[in-house]
Design brief:
Radius of gyration of chain A: 15 Å
Number of helices of chain A: 3
CATH class of chain A: Alpha Beta
Number of strands of chain A: 6
CATH topology of chain A: Thiol Ester Dehydrase, Chain A
Strand content of chain A: 35-45%
Number of domains of chain A: 1
Largest sheet of chain A: 6 strands, antiparallel
Largest interface: A-B, 36 and 36 residues
CATH superfamily of chain A: Hotdog Thioesterase
Oligomer: homotetramer
């Protein structure tokens, strides 16, 4: 299955989840590397009209945990996010942000991802790491 | 203004924000201590039907940053979340979770919050800390 | 073996490790709960004469990873620290600090610890969480 | 003052601190970028003969907090580390590690550093972020 087909399938699957509620859309899905966009609008802002830090955290966790899922699903593994940390560097009022997740460590039991979230000009809005534990046997 | 009035005012203010999108509702708002609930449903689940870790992160960041806002707004301060970390301890498929935020450190320039998220039986679902920086002069 | 004997044995074992270099001494070792002290002196200060944040981090990681080791060693498990986070809340120039570690989550594959570091008056100097992965088979 | 002179001066200053106790030596000091080495020996190992995760944390905090200090000392600012997080990716038994710190965000009130620690072959041993608050007025 090529990347375009995967993206189409993913968006059908996630429409009725938190990803749909926040408007998160994957734009690139490759082994160990993913990108997704998220709008800065009523769904992702806090009361003062700025991007909610929690929305950035949700985008980061989405990218890393889905990236791990893709790496282990064929062998029946189950990816479970265990720890997320994120620094918020820059505020944003509108438009959209793009998150890029790169795997830093791909062990049998643990994955660690680096996620950077940037605005339209490429300025970093937030940086994050996610630790994922791989469990056996969903089947 | 008593707590009930504050809660009513807050919910009018946050309806059209991420808090509305995720169904987060404050249930207790006191100086240095806040509680809020969040449903585990289509708005907060990931594709496998479990509570999305990013939703827990959003709940934690909401509680701490709003708690800091309340502590500094009268003196014209601006509360900005700078770092969030969270451990996910337990999965959840439905019902709701409750987050409780307690301030650990209330300095002039920095606040640190501890946030615990639990299920209906009081079992811990996630634990989190949020670092907030207080800036002067919104006025 | 009672707690006193365990403590004696531990101190013989750790003298020629980082614990010796920093002056860390365990004072209470129980399943899921440990305490240790660390001096604030030349070994643990930064150039400006204050307790080095990295020394607090080292104390936190020591407590949690050793606590996990004690819980899994009898069944042949290996405890490996995977993620540490720490907030520094208060500076300190001399005397000693005491760290107290409590296990928050004891799963088969993952442990999560909360560690609080306090001064002689019980004021919190730092708060930390450590995620430990349990691997099988050291034998 | 050139980099060589700065390094000499720094090492005179830090000999009787935690940096001396752990054998940390700066090898490159530039605005927003620093490197330091740390031996993996009795001073930095845990009881099982591996590099102590707390030593890596201490190296990371050293690099970021000293890097911030250098950026603000001329204007009388005081750099205070507020939050450190670190993922341990790879174990190590001997030799030395090298930490490289790059500033991610240099605001008036907050600095955020990314620190990577690698072995002699350049394999990543740990990744870390440090949040530093800048206070005014040490004078």
């Amino acid at each position: 299955m090529n990347e375009e087909d995967i993206l189409k399938q993913v968006h059908e699957m996630v429409g009725s989840t938190m990803l749909g509620a926040l408007g998160i859309r994957f734009t690139r899905i490759r082994p160990g590397y993913l990108e997704a966009t998220m709008p800065v609008d009523d769904r992702t802002r806090q009361p003062y009209g700025l991007l909610h830090g929690g929305a950035s955290a949700a985008l980061a966790e989405t990218l890393g945990s889905f990236g791990s899922h893709l790496l282990v699903q064929d062998s029946g593994g189950l990816a479970v996010g265990v720890e997320l940390n994120i620094n918020h560097l820059k505020s944003k009022r509108g438009g959209e942000v793009t998150g890029k997740a790169t795997i830093l460590h791909q062990g049998k039991r643990t994955h660690v991802w680096n996620i950077e979230i940037a605005d339209e000009e490429g300025h970093t809005v937030a940086v994050s790491r996610l630790t994922v534990m791989i469990r056996e046997g969903r089947g």
